[in-house]
Amino acid sequence: MEFSNIEESKGAIREEKENGNEINEIEESKVRLMRTFVEREDPSVKEVDDFTIRRFLRARELDIEKASTLFLKYLSWRRSFIPNGFISPSEIPNELAQNKLFMQGADKQNRPVVVVFGARHKPYKGSSEELKRFVVYTLERICARMPAGKEKFVSIADLEGWGYSNSDIRGYLAALSILQDCYPERLGKLFIVHVPYVFMTAWKVVYPFIDRKTKNKIIFVENKRLKSTLLDDIDESQLPDVYGGKLSLVPIQDV
């Protein structure tokens, strides 16, 4: 779970405010109010840092009631879905064997870069529950490797070679739900590249379930502008070599 020393997180938030970064006094006040409310409902919240509470607040436009509902639901989900506090590679052998998700380098804002290859997803080789565990395993590893002071990651979803055998609407919706409801405000930007026309059929089904904040972070990239678009956000020294950069891909389980 995304727990850390509470006093350290409060100090870091104060430092953000002093530095004129994203935090402001309204957010700081609402973090305190939300903490007071959710701690009454679930005493384990005392171990949750202020950054986590702030992410849930931001995901619900600083509406304390809505953010608290989402957060308490997340805590309950986490206790049942991840009773040991982590997902072991032994719980997701079929997903890891597909070798479809990688993490290396950082963008110009020092956010980790994650690459996923959609054509390597084989829904018939696993189960929906294993896919959910894989999504959680991936997000946990990404969050655990965030540089100090960073909360978000950047992703490149590469759909080259994607076809109907890779289509998994139920899986996409499950992954989206986990990202938006359990790891809100973790995604910084999503580049969707090498998009085949047939993918748009699946996209039209998934799109209505994407919340407004997430939609604003998604960019479809034209093939002819692929490298230049990625270089706007990611330095060549940090860009994966498959896109003309300098870094080799590293499987998520090896990070």
What is the structure about, briefly put?
By secondary structure, this protein is of the alpha/beta class.
Polypeptide structure, described:
The protein has a 5-stranded mixed beta sheet, covered by helices on one side. Helix 2 packs across helix 4 (64-81), helix 3 crosses helix 4 (64-81) and helix 6 (128-144) packs parallel to helix 7. It has helices at residues 6-18, 25-41, 50-59, 64-81, 93-97, 128-144, 169-182, 199-206, 212-215, 226-233, and strands at 101-106, 112-117, 153-158, 187-193, 218-220. The protein has 255 residues and is an alpha/beta fold. The protein has 2 domains: 1-81, Orthogonal Bundle (Helicase, Ruva Protein, domain 3); 89-251, Phosphatidylinositol Transfer Protein Sec14p (3-Layer(aba) Sandwich). This is CRAL-TRIO domain-containing protein. Residues 7-20 have a biased composition (Basic and acidic residues). Residues 1-21 are annotated as: Disordered.
